[in-house]
Amino acid sequence: MEFGIFVQMPLYGPTAHDADAEHAACMLDVDMIVEADRHNFKYAWVSEHHALTEYSHLSASESFIPFVFPQTQRIHIGSGIWPLNPVTNHPVRLAERAAMCDHLSEGRFEFGTGRGAGSWEVGTFNLVTSETKEIWDEVIWEFKKMWGTEFYSHEGKSFSTPSRNILPKPYGGGGTHPPMWVAAGNTPTYEKAARHGLGVLGFTIGAVQDMGPPVAAYKKAIAEANPVGQYVNDNVMVTTAVVCAETTEEARDIAFRASQVSSYHVTLVYLYHDTFPIPEGAPRWPEPPTPPTMTDLEAAIEVGAMIVGTPSELRDQLRRWEPIGMDQLSFGMPFGQSREEAMQTIRLFGDEVIPAFDTDPVHRSTRMRYGDRPVGRS
After folding, report:
1. Which of 21, 162, 239, 240 has its CA 20 to 30 A from that of 266?
2. β-pairing, 306-309 with 199-202?
3. How would DSSP label each residue in 336-349?
4. What total number of domains does the chain contain?
């Protein structure tokens, strides 16, 4: 099992309108990725959201990602995600950006795609959510053509391009390209991702133990994939929250305080991600959520909705979820932790937990991309 973090620059309450707080949140996301790179994390996922006040102020990931690459050495950084809406991100521009990030990082870019967060976000560009599925289904097949030929053209429903040579080609030439992924907010997307030969970014809300069926469906379908890229990226990433500290008491205290923030964050998820299934009785923004109790926290830890404790305790918790079969576990950061607490979690987890589960020096997505070929060569 490999490990990652994902960042999205949340700013809650009055801080969402505070210029200094916004800048500090942006730079904290940079610093957390740099710290994760130093402490054995293999992946960092960078969101792209538009006009989602409080929930995410990280909109221009195409600028953010190249800024972080030269500050890191080994970690792969991915778009989590770049929406495939030609109005938001023209496919030619996405192919160019992905290839350029691939060059600047020498193969450390991961190309995560999706439809967008919900009606509020896509409505910023005068789109409606009912249109985005058909658009994604058309656009996703075009990238390997743009990267693999000098004479690319397309005449489709969502976009058209006359015959052109789309440049640059990805790192290593047209015979390879960055690993391709798709975000899965609903579990049926796991199987669809597998049929397309795509890695799945499981940005879902809930317990790790509930991920068994969608992961199993993915692994069954991936064997018969018709890949949209030049190769199958057999990869499942699942998300959860983590707090790691020197003592059980400190970890529980941090997690309890963080849960008060994350419970509010969930109301924003259901506000903006209005294509997600909403559990019965879930609070809806601006209705304040019922403050979680310590009993609620313990229940969340028990089902894997949070991973909390000392390094030894976290190793035990992860061994319970390892049989589910996900390839990568990625943690949302910081979501209620202070800067110091988030950095402590990254350091302790990276140094004392990750080596017990990830013994392969090569990224799984790199193995998918190159197989037995030398890295960086077509």
Report:
1. 21
2. unpaired
3. T--HHHHHHHHHHH
4. 1
